[in-house]
Amino acid sequence: MTERKPPGMSFESWVDSQISRGIARGDFDDLAGAGKPLPHRPGEDSMIAWGLEKARQENIDVFGMLPPGLALRKEKEDLPRRAAVLHSEAAVRALVEDFNDRVRLFWRRPQDPPVVPVGLADADALVAEWEVTRPAPQPEPVVPEPPRRRRFRMWRRERRG
After folding, report:
1. Residue 23 lies in a domain
2. Percent of the residues in the chain that have a pLDDT greater than 70, as a whole number
3. CA distance linking residue 146 with residue 161, whole number of Å
4. 116, part of any domain
């Protein structure tokens, strides 16, 4: 951890001294990407494009970077894909109910303009689509039981009668 900034020293000169000490120690030698130019992105969207590219490189969920209304709208579009991997109608209905609860909570919060309209998901329509698109259940393979071997005792007692 770096030491605290001494009182009376400006922040810029303190940062510059930290950097010069790091260079002298060799902390910046052999860094990944050293000597490579940064990609040129003209225009206002350069920060957004860089952020999306970095999120994809780091496998970060891009939904987390969206405003809440837009993220819910994107999630609503993604519901059929998420429902396709579920194994029961109850699980699909629980997925829709969880989404609808979050939409209702979004409606109750005060919003800054622009407000993205988000509607509730229709559980019956999603279940109907799920039933049509899900693969047919595979029958369980029947494995025959191995035949039982008769057990012979090595030391049998003779019965006296």
Report:
1. no
2. 89
3. 38
4. yes
CA 57 to chain centre: 14
Write down the pTM of the prediction. Answer: 0.55
Q: Which residue range(s) make up the domain with 103?
A: 66-134
The predicted structure's pLDDT at residue 149: 75
Q: How many CB atoms lie within 10 A of CB 72?
A: 20
Instruction: Say if CB 26 and CB 34 are below 8 A apart.
Output: no
pLDDT in tens, 53-101: 888 888 887 777 788 888 899 999 999 999 999 988 999 999 999 999 9
Taking CA atoms, 89 is separated from 1, 60, 78, 97, 128, in Å, by 53, 30, 17, 12, 9
Q: Could you give the CA distance from residue 150 to residue 74 in angstroms, rounded to a whole number?
A: 65
Tell me, yes or no, whether 14 lies in a domain.
Answer: no
Assigned domain for 118 exists: yes
